[in-house]
Structure formats: structure tokens, C-alpha cells
Amino acid sequence: MTLSLIDATPALEELIDREAEMHRLADGFGFLEGPVWHHEDAYLLFSDIQNDTRWRWSERDGARIEARPNFIGNGLVYDADGNLLVCEHVTSTVARIRPGGDRDIPAFHYRGTYLNSPNDVITRSDGSIYFSDPNYGRWDHAVGVKRPFELGFQGVFRVPNSGGELQLVVERDAFEQPNGLCFSPDESVLYINDVQDITAYDVQPDGSLRHPRVFHEGLGSGEIPGTGNPDGMKCDARGNVWCTARDGVWVIAPTGDLLGIVATPEVTANLCWGGPEWNWLFLCTSTSLHMVETKVTSAPLPYHPRVSR
Length: 309
Fold this sequence. Notes:
Blueprint: E1 5-6, H1 10-13, E2 23-27, E3 32-38, E4 43-48, E5 53-58, E6 62-67, E7 73-78, E8 84-88, E9 93-97, E10 103-107, E11 109-110, E12 113-114, E13 121-123, E14 129-133, E15 155-159, E16 167-168, E17 181-183, E18 189-193, E19 198-203, E20 209-216, E21 233-235, E22 241-245, E23 248-252, E24 258-263, E25 270-274, E26 280-285, E27 288-293
């Protein structure tokens, strides 16, 4: 299908062609999340939460099952050593799966209390891990396992590069349900979204966060059900934030100004760049996987040389 842009500014059309083709790569899923591109072997991993399955897509093989069951895995990312990090709703952990299949757990509790249900996860070039911890995975619905809310708040955490005690990097009550997060290209700013808005923080040399401010407001569906709230979020090489939200993907300049919305055929929960030149934008559009080529590439990533700092 041909791309559709909403309220597009000229600046948005410098990032994505209005006539670009949105390619449907696979469909028939429950609800898709957590895409991450493996550059060396040219494949995409993504999670089908409602069917408790991790999938792999490549141009050569199409979509095939990578792991099932998957502890209702959600967000996925690689670290600099090529290990896969998975946010698991069933176990309330961030799990690390090594290339050979061995598994360990970088994060599962905060000060002796189990986490809620880690949702989205990113890595920083210093080797540390940041992740959001809303409580969706403890609700009585298809994306988790109903159980008590133990922690008492929904936070954002950091795993130091040397391991050790988990660090809460935001105020305990800063967010209702923190979800997507991403760094600016130079890692000086961390963006975190909630059910309506995006907040920006300055990243300090020790990895802590300071000076929270509202980056952009009103992305959620509000009284219009089924059109999407802020969820997955990535930054491009020019510092623009691409956030899945109401009606599709919102593209927001580093100034906080909306450049326009890339409309999607279903609620889109997450996105990532990949492909040979890192300009294929993969979209997890609920029951289907789409891809559209952009004029801009991903912001630098610690885990792939093509876009490393």
C-alpha cells in the first residue's frame, strides 16, 4: 500500500517519501511488539505477545518461529556482545540469552521486591541497560499472567555495566505506566513515554537522569478507543523521535515540534530500523508486520557496527 502522512510538514518529507510503499511482510499474528534487527545475519526478531511467541523474519526465509513459549516476551534488544535481552511478562525479568543459548537474568527485583513486568529495553554504549517496568504483565488479560502488584509503583531502571544493584533512575511516582524509551544520537538525552506524553531527561556521566521536562504532549488516544497510546519509540540519526501512538507513528523534532504522523493500517505498538543501509523502518502493526524505506537511518546503536558511535 502507498504511505499516508497526516499533518505532514516539509521537514517530515525530508525524512520519508510521501509516495513510499508500505510493504506487508507477514500477518496473522495476535499482537506484535519489540522488533530488533540483527545486522550481521540480516534478520528481524519480534514478539507476538498474545501467542507467546518470538518470531524471526528475513528476506530469504520470510517469517518463522524462533521460540515458543517465550514467557510472554515483549521488548527486545542486543547488547554490544551480541546477547539478546528480553523483557518477560511471565517472569517479571529482563533475561539475557547468549548466542549459544545460555540464559541469565540481569534484572528481576528492586531492593528485594520483584519487578512488575519489564516492557521495553535499550542498551547504552557504556554497557549499561535501561528498561521500563509498567504493570501490564500482571493484569488479567492476554498479555500477561494475573498476579498481585507487589512493587507499588511503575518505574524506569538501569542495570550498571558492571552488574550489581538495580538503580531506579526516575522518581517513584514520575510515571503512570512508563513504556517506550530511547536515547538521542549522542546519548545525552533519554526519552521516556507514558500513556499520553513523552518526557525528556538529561543523561549524566554516571548514567543517572536529571532535569525532567515534557518533550511532547497528547499522543494518546484519550476518548477514542483502539487508536493507540504512546508505546515503542526510536530516534533517527538526525535526532528526531519516532513514537508509535494515536493513528500511527508520530515524528517529533529534537525541539519537541511535531513534524507529522505516518499513518498505519492498525494500532502500531513498536518499530525499529534495519536492513542493509539501516533505512528500513519495521512496524509492528498489531496483527501484521510492515516495512517502509525512509530517507534517514537509525540513531547510533551500541550493538551494530554500521550505526555505532
